Amino acid sequence: MSASEDFFARLRERIDAVDSVVSVGLDPDPARLPDHLADHDLPRWAFNRRIIDATHEHAACYKPNVAFYEDADGWRALRETLAYAEGKGVPVLLDAKRGDIGNTARQYATLLDSGASGPGADAITVNPYMGRDSLEPFLSRTDKGVFVLCRTSNPGGADFQNLEVGPNKRLFEYVAQRASEWNERGNVGLVVGATEPEELERVRDLVPTLPFLVPGVGAQGGDAEAAVTFGPASGGDAAGVGLVNSSRGIVFAGEGESFDRAAGEAAKRLKRRLNGHR
Ligand SMILES: O=c1ccn([C@@H]2O[C@H](COP(=O)(O)O)[C@@H](O)[C@H]2O)c(=O)[nH]1
């Protein structure tokens, strides 16, 4: 497979080019947008454009969460945003947490393509709860990254994910091992939060070669050092590839007219902080 077809090869090139594993979360909460953008045709797009201009030199990828775009204007804003990020050469990981029965999953997977139904993205997050077949339409996309929810960063992440499903085996550990088996095409990663660093380390020990997307630093107070120590794959073809995400901590670092400058500074600070532990 050539580098252009392989998401993790493209991501590695990007990480090396900007010397950064920072994933900038594009979550333009309408309630928090600066007032002066309110008159814009698409305020979320106006916001994201300025955030991208200010942060792209520090961004290994952008991670828009679809929750912030699921309305008519939102989809338009998302399409504009993705095209703009692509124009800057920054990969986009769509945080959609999808997974469903076959025909529905196939439709969900069209999110990855730019066209009539999808905005187009380089990678996506998926939910493994419905099993392997529910993820097949994503896994079969050799040119796209597929990040499987494993141990999420929210307080309730332990409710199910930490249940013992076998001798000395918690559900998130089982998911990590199954996802590793699903990585037949070299396009699977895991979502593992920074808020439980010992569990993050445990998952890294279990699956050394899978890249992680590590959310939860910044606003959720997760452990940034653990995120960058255990997030990147530690062996295999994707060695060194991983992402540490911050959304609100970057895009809402400042307010008012100069919100973008504050975002750029926040992205740079996080990059430097993480690089101190790489
Ligand atoms: O376990 C998870 C999975 C996804 N997320 C998403 O990441 C960002 C985090 O936002 P912050 O503002 O940096 O807290 C957001 O889109 C979440 O839905 C996560 O936090 N944890």
**What is the CA-CA span between the terminal residues?**
28 Å
Q: What characterizes the major β-sheet?
A: 8 strands, parallel
Q: Got a strand count? A: 10
Class by SSE composition: alpha/beta
How many helices? The count is: 11
The ligands found in this model are: ligand LLZGTKA7
In total, the number of domains comes to 1
Order of helices and strands: HEHEHEHEHEHEEHEHEHEHH
> Which whole number gives the mean pLDDT?
96
Low-confidence stretches: none
Question: Helix content range of the residues, please?
Answer: 25-40%
CATH homologous superfamily (4th level) name: Aldolase class I
Shape: globular
CATH level-3 fold name: TIM Barrel
Radius of gyration: 18 Å
Give the amount of beta strand, in percent.
15-25%
CATH class: Alpha Beta
CATH architecture: Alpha-Beta Barrel
What is this structure, in a nutshell?
The protein has 278 residues and is of the alpha/beta class. The chain contains eleven helices and ten strands.
